[in-house]
Amino acid sequence: MKKILLASILVLSMSSFTHAESDEFDDDLGEELTEREIVQDYIDDCNNHGDYYGCFSVAMKYEKGEVLEKDISKAIEYYEKACKLGSEEGCKMAEKLKVK
């Protein structure tokens, strides 16, 4: 009985160690993406996959001039795409920027 208990504890501790190593590996891969590549993924998600979150994220980057050059008309365009895809916040932001 003691051998079974000891073997179980050993297996559990090894699986925890392996899981911790895999998390570390995933984090390393995520750090390899540049901000520009992440924004490019958002653009692709928006334009090719109908993802309102991607559209909204691109709009914010254009609005704030982060990663992408500041361009309010492009920000409005992407907020409107997000709106058409179901983002209420996208609708609000597009209208807000049009008023400015």
From TrEMBL:
It is an enzyme of class 3 (hydrolase). Gene3D superfamilies: Tetratricopeptide repeat domain. It catalyses: a beta-lactam + H2O = a substituted beta-amino acid. Its EC number is 3.5.2.6. The keyword Signal applies. InterPro entries: Sel1-like, TPR-like_helical_dom_sf. Residues 1-20 form the signal peptide. Keywords: Antibiotic resistance, Disulfide bond, Signal. SUPFAM superfamilies: HCP-like. This is beta-lactamase. It comes from Sulfurovum xiamenensis.
